[in-house]
Design brief:
single chain, about 110 residues, mainly alpha, 5 helices, about 0% strand, globular
């Protein structure tokens, strides 16, 4: 099993545990869009308690990749995803976080191939 396949299995299990149906093609596309960050223990997760980290998500993923700039909608979506993970969950995987944002904003098509 390749490292990417191992990550996809981990992220799929996390989504299932959270009660979401997993779209394997979407998850793979979002995970690949994360680039090498998924292979670094620190950058693989999103620190939801860090406003700097959340601003990076807002700017680099939601703004640049998804093209969403309405601050109120962006903040609401980020808050929803953080709540979906639960505050006690320390493994807020970046790929899963981005997957949920892509679904929230109905931007799945740009990650499926």
């Amino acid at each position: 099993m390749s490292k990417l396949e191992e990550k996809l299995a981990t992220y799929g299990a996390a989504l299932t545990k959270m009660g979401h149906k997993v779209d394997a093609n979407l998850l793979k596309g979002v995970t690949k869009a994360c680039g090498p960050s998924i292979y670094n223990k620190d950058s693989e997760t999103v620190a939801s308690s860090s406003e700097t980290e959340l601003n990076t998500v807002r700017t680099n993923f939601i703004g640049k990749k998804l093209g969403i700039t309405d601050a109120a909608k962006v903040d609401a979506a980020v808050a929803k995803v953080v709540a979906d993970f639960g505050s006690a969950n320390k493994n807020k995987y970046r790929a899963v976080f981005y997957y949920l944002l892509a679904v929230h904003f109905k931007k799945e098509a740009q990650f499926k191939k």
